[in-house]
Write a structure and sequence with these properties.
Order of helices and strands: HHHHHHHHHHHH
Number of strands: 0
Number of helices: 12
Shape: globular
Radius of gyration: 20 Å
Strand content: under 5%
Low-confidence stretches: none
């Protein structure tokens, strides 16, 4: 076997290992919350999950045993200090990312009818008697997904591949895996494929350009609060607009397309600024 074949084999091994480790680190932790919610109920489950997430972040970012893997865990979690400018642009990126995804969903369901029953299936919080506790469960659900999935996909999966094969391959692998995992849900109609894949790509680029998982976690959290409360559990209401095939291209559709373009542009600008700040840090 020549040197080039050895390098290719080594990179392939790193990709496979990163896929396995990323899924284990992210998805096992993400599934603790549903078990707590079903077994303990709110608000005890929420308190227990917040305690678990605190311990989880401490460990995956380099705390605790084994000490021999401290640097590996810190690197995969992208531990770093941030300047005030990075915080400002990172928060803009996180908010505009969440807005971009929700704007994309609105556009999708102006093209095809919104399948409310399919989106609601598997996300029924009616067993939680209090409306306030339902909202709290949505917020904790979103936080759990944001922390665990970003740690798994954009951290422990993407980071090692970036170092061995470069950012393009790393973002492609993490984004496609992210899409495949999420499109096992009842809401996974064909039109959701580009939205879920696009969200994965944007989060992967944000992790790379900012050099931290923090803004990916925040953006994912903000996005999922809306997904849980509005699109999935529908405790905040449900989408009632009709497709443009029925209404025609009305003013609302034009404004919705404009909002999508605007928030996406803001996100791209923020990520570009973060990339420049990261390169000079």
């Amino acid at each position: 076997m020549n040197a080039q074949s050895q390098r290719v084999g080594a990179r392939a091994l790193i990709i496979v290992r990163a896929l396995i480790v990323g899924l284990l680190v992210g998805m096992i932790a993400a599934n603790i919350w549903p078990l707590l919610l079903l077994k303990l109920g709110m608000p005890i489950a929420g308190v227990a999950e917040l305690a678990f997430l605190g311990a989880y972040v401490w460990w995956v970012s380099g705390g605790g045993p084994p000490r021999s893997l401290k640097a590996f865990r810190a690197d995969n979690f992208r531990v770093r200090s941030l300047s005030a400018a990075q915080w400002s642009w990172g928060l803009i990126a996180a908010l505009s990312f969440a807005a971009t995804v929700h704007a994309a969903l609105v556009l999708l369901f102006r093209i095809v009818p919104f399948p409310a029953a399919a989106f609601h299936r598997g996300y029924d919080f009616s067993f939680i008697p209090s409306h306030q506790m339902q909202w709290l469960a949505c917020i904790v659900s979103a936080l759990s997904a944001g922390i665990c999935e970003e740690t798994g996909f954009r951290g422990y999966m993407q980071r090692p591949i970036e170092k061995s094969s470069g950012p393009v391959v790393a973002i492609a692998v993490s984004s496609v895996t992210f899409m495949l995992i999420h499109l096992t849900k009842d809401w996974a109609l064909l039109g959701m494929v580009p939205i879920v894949l696009g969200a994965g790509v944007l989060l992967g680029v944000l992790a790379r350009t900012s050099g931290t998982l923090l803004f990916c976690i925040l953006g994912h959290w903000f996005m999922d609060i809306g997904l849980f409360a509005y699109w999935w559990t529908q405790i905040a209401g449900t989408f009632s607009q009709r497709p443009i095939a029925e209404t025609g291209v009305d003013l609302a559709a034009c404004l919705e397309a404009l909002v999508f373009a605007a928030v996406l542009i803001v996100l791209l600008i923020a990520m570009r600024r973060l990339s420049k700040l990261n390169s000079t840090a």
